[in-house]
Amino acid sequence: MINSRFFNRSELIGFIALAAVLFVILPLTLDVFRLNLVAKYLTYAFVAIGLVLCWGYGGILSLGQGVFFGLGGYCMAMFLKLEASSVENTKIQSTPGIPDFMDWNQITSLPLFWQPFHSLTFTILAIILVPGLFALIIGTAMFKRRVGGTYFAIITQAVAAILTILIIGQQGYTGGINGMTDLRTLKGWDIRPDHAKVILYFVEVVLLFACIGIAQFIRLTKLGRILVAMREQEDRVRFSGYSVANFKIFAFCMAAVFAAIGGAMFALNVGFMSPSFVGIVPSIEMVIYTAVGGRMSIFGAIWGAILVNFAKTSLSESFPQLWLFGLGALFIAVVLAFPNGLSGLWADYVQPRIDRLFASRKSKTDWKDNSVADGAPAE
Amino acid sequence: MLIGQQPKEFLLAVSGLTVSFDGFKAVNDLSFYVEENEIRVIIGPNGAGKTTVLDLICGKTKATSGSIQFRGKELTKMRENEIVQTGVGRKFQTPSVFEDLTVFENLEISFPRGRTVFGSLTFQRDQLVKNRVEEVAEMIFLKDKLNTYADELSHGQKQWLEIGMLLIQDPDLLMLDEPVAGMSVSERAKTAELLNRIIKNRSVLVIEHDMKFVEDIAHKVTVLHQGQILSEGTMEKVQNDPKVIEVYLGH
């Protein structure tokens, strides 16, 4: 096995299963509408990977990941919105060439901070750097002062509330409560037709696997072990000569950047961005996806994001009022019954059987190679 | 600088150290000096401020006033990780090891290299690290437990592991808070042997209640009472001091 050092056996099975499902099974079996829904679910998987590093490993619970998801999403949406607001497209406005919501709010020229979003290179850098720097500022302000635990979680929640209020209040600059809608093209390439949605889905899955690779790399370095150490005995890490605050800031910034990539892919795949993906409720939902999947497992958290969102779509189609109760019940069930989430259940009940299977295969050496690792996902 | 006026260069010079918690002075105008390669034991009744003194030196608690000089550097103005990097190691009273990591990984984290974020991302587990970890693991009687998770160790083994984690830092001043507390008789003997081996070529500051153990290792004893020094000197001198007998050794 090539990857035997990078992934252990159970992680390798998780990797192959996820790759098979996302690259082969789902594109072959789902229609474009459903595949686009999966693309939407997967944007939350990016957030979940970040939360595994930051919360599962580092023990830093952030209830404000929607902030970074939103910042990434808005950066992408600003670029797309500018492209959709060309002079030809907006000639009926009183000021042609600016986004429609600006025109509705009596703004007559493009604000200065919108100007650089004409450039795709700048936009891509901004998707990474704006949330990264914002997380750096919050992280430095909090962790250098030893604010942690519940207090940190509450502050991130407050930041999520503040950002939502800011976006809604500054309607002329942000599109307000409606968000940025009617996004059309990326460098002239129409993102709305079916074939574009399929391509965007694959781009997103490739990016997701890149993020899995980065997260797994971090987890395997000494930094990954320091995060675990810090979660358990913060003082011992400090008195082993490490600046605990810097490591927390790093984990928080990584989680922010992953969330922002998810947000940017959301704007591309779903075709709009609005404050309803930024605030307190979506931020808490993101934590629940991670908890349900398993906050100690990268693959578990991704499955959590996919499955909870799938349940959300199917349940809220039939019982719209019940969904929030269902989500709450699910979270309570995770906390009380299976604190390590679905990946914990997998490790307790399914993994031992697979190990036994491998053990028995080893003992019967003359067995011919059959497909073993193509098992469907556990959950 | 005052260094020129001092008769001798001390490794650690604590002078006029005071810390008050809401008006209560846990340590009150305390001064003492530790020489190179000296083994100093701090004893005293409960609440005398022994652990607080160690907390102040390693930066866990900030001093209200006074100064702590280590090799001429003022520690009261430094952060904890900087104090560690200048060569002060601290063992806590209750064993604090990383239970979700193996013995090897516990020791590796304390290896003094790659202590920044970038450094720990690029840290390589090379032969030097492996050799050093194995060498220390042998000293602390855990050589055959390198791949055991620390939560499976006994209380005594966890204490040894934490001592090992300090050892791998190779500090010039080693501070131990009750290293044999809660240990069985045989573990105590082994720990004494271990301490006697590791205290070579460094200064050690120990808090301990076990008088037999103190007698075995101490060069000099400082007796604390209500945040102040009651008596200081050799074990023999301290044991015969009537004030000490009254407040501490008498009962």
Quick overview of this protein structure:
The complex is a heterodimer of chains A (379) and B (251). Chain A has 379 residues and is mostly helical.
Order of SSEs of chain A: HHHHHHHEEHHHHHHHH
Molecular shape of chain A: globular
Strand content of chain B: 15-25%
Flag low-confidence runs of chain A.
365-379
Percentage of β-strand residues of chain A = under 5%
Question: Can you offer a commentary on this structure?
Answer:
The complex is a heterodimer of chains A (379) and B (251). Chain A is 69% helix and 1% strand. By secondary structure, chain A is mainly α. In chain A, strands 1-2 form a two-stranded antiparallel ribbon. In chain A, a hairpin with a 2-residue loop joins strand 1 (185-186) and strand 2. Chain A starts with 8 loop residues before the first helix and ends in a 16-residue tail after the last helix. In chain B, helix 3 packs parallel to helix 6 (155-169). Chain B has 10 helices and 10 strands. At the A-B interface, helix 9, helix 10 and helix 11 of A face helix 2, helix 3, helix 4 and helix 6 of B.
Reconstruct the topology from this structure.
The complex is a heterodimer of chains A (379) and B (251).
Chain A: H1 9-29, H2 32-57, H3 65-84, H4 100-104, H5 120-143, H6 149-169, H7 171-174, E1 185-186, E2 189-190, H8 194-220, H9 222-232, H10 234-238, H11 244-270, H12 280-293, H13 298-318, H14 323-336, H15 341-363
Antiparallel strand pairs in A: 1-2
Helix pairs in contact in A: 1-8, 2-8, 2-11, 2-12, 2-13, 3-5, 3-11, 5-11, 8-11, 9-11, 12-13, 12-14, 12-15, 13-15
Chain B: E1 12-21, E2 24-34, E3 39-43, H1 50-58, E4 65-70, E5 73-74, H2 80-86, E6 88-91, H3 103-110, H4 117-121, H5 127-139, H6 155-169, E7 173-177, H7 185-198, E8 203-207, H8 211-217, E9 220-225, E10 228-233, H9 235-239, H10 242-249
Parallel strand pairs in B: 3-8, 3-9, 6-7, 7-8
Antiparallel strand pairs in B: 1-2, 1-4, 4-5, 9-10
